Amino acid sequence: MVLIDDTINQQLLISLDLRDLISKDHPCYFIKNVVDTMDFTEVHKKIRRKAWRICIFSCNAV
Fold first, then answer.
1. Which residues are within 8 A (CB) of 32 and not within 5 positions of it... i.e. 6 or more apart?
2. Is 2 helix (H, G, I), strand (E, B) or coil?
3. Which residues of 5-30 are buried (b: 16+ CB within 10 A; e: fewer)?
4. Whole-prediction pTM value?
5. Is the four-CA dihedral 28, 33, 35, 36 of positive or negative sign?
6. Which CA distances in Å does 22 have to 5, 11, 29, 61?
7. How far apart are CA 52 and CA 47, in angstroms?
């Protein structure tokens, strides 16, 4: 159900890329750069193992 018809053929009012809305000196870029340098390999392995165990137990319960 459309409340108001689109008469100006404008589909989006904002950019699809949120980086266009954030200034270049915003602290989020610093945080992103720091996180990008970190190695999360061991964390990912632990999460995958735990998720697998949860899946096995919940799938067997069904």
1. none
2. coil
3. eeeeeeeeeeeeeeeeeeeeeeeeee
4. 0.49
5. positive
6. 31, 22, 9, 47
7. 8
Instruction: Identify the CA nearest to 32 among candidates 51, 46, 18.
Output: 18
Please determine, for residue 33, whether its predicted confidence score (pLDDT) is greater than 70.
yes
Specify the 3-state DSSP secondary structure of 1: coil
Mean pLDDT of 42-61: 76
Distance in angstroms (rounded) separating the CA atoms of residues 51 and 45: 10
CA distance 27 to 29: 5
pLDDT range class, residue 50, cuts 50, 70, 90: confident
| Two structure tokens written together for 23 | 């200034």
Tell which residue, 18, 38, 39, has the closest CA to residue 28: 18
